[in-house]
Amino acid sequence: MNFISTAFGVFFEYDTPRIVHIQSKKVGVINRFIQLCIIGYVIGYAIIYKKGYQDFDNVQSVVTTKVKGIVMVNTSIHPDIQSIWDVADYIVPPQENNAFFVITNLIVTPFQTLGTCPEDIKIKGSNCTLDRDCPAGTSLPVGNGVLTGKCNTDVGRCDIYAWCPVEKGTLEIPKPAVLENSKDFTVFIKNNIEFPKYNVKRRNLPDNASDEYLQKCRNDGGANLRCPIFTLQSIVEGANSGSYSNVASEGGVIQIRIKWNCNLDLSEENCLPEYSFRRLDSSTYKISKGYNFRYSKNFKFENGTEYRTLYKAFGIKFVISVSGQARKFAPVPFFTNIGSGLALLSIATVICDIVVLYVLKAKVVYREKKYLQVVGDDAYKVLD
Length: 384
Description:
This protein is of the alpha+beta class. Helices cover 24% and strands 32% of the residues. Strands 1, 5, 6, 7, 11, 12, 13 and 14 form an eight-stranded mixed beta sheet that branches.
């Protein structure tokens, strides 16, 4: 019953802060030290380092690319491959969103026609001795065609209905890379960006750039940092992915990163892009390394027979990503950080109270000065 009365009596009580001025070297040093730490954090970290006095806007971006270069293939070494390759041949597909693919190596299977031929010897399950080993109308996993139901006893493999002769893509990747000289190809990266909140538009080209400038400039990480034209070799080797020839042989995926971090409290002319590169796949994978795909070019003979040339293309996929923020002074975030810092100063008072009330030898004296109980005329009293 006393517990209920005591709990009920709390409802009729009121606590008000009491200011006690304590003269103590220990407590004074602790208090000032904590206050300095909080002020240093607010001013040095929250406001200056983290730019707490600025508002920000995220970048809106569009990217287009244009690759240029011509390479000659030694047809005595690679008789199945055409001798001259230009941008219309090695950029497949011609246009992609924020990406482009450059063919650097090929396995070519020319003059395929629809017909019957033995399945590739490296396809698991293609070996046979009798017709029943080749169930008609089915196909083998990763096979090149549909089984005819016949076993070609001359070679000991199932016959298939497919584009014949079958693809040579199951052979080892040819080295050196067929289009290894593609390392000297250039890519023009045109990037237009906007910060809508501040109505600021920029592009990664000098405002006074001319056609002559674009023909001569190359961004090699040196003096031409404003130049938006890179060689493929500089991109690949800038991604720390090893030599260009190794990547070109098996293919790979390289990311081109463009960052726009702009302080609009300064001149807009200082709002410039920063380029960096990294490889997204790895050359240490044990299976399915690199990057490749297949495509074909179809033709017809004069007699109406259709044939095609099949390409297994190895190459480098370049993926472009754009990120960044623009910052500018704004009173709301500035005063918000100042207000938060002033509120944090109360931490010094809490810590000092803990020290004087529970740690120092004179804690009993401090408690008597800290707390004062006043009983009013109309105070609620617990009856015995």
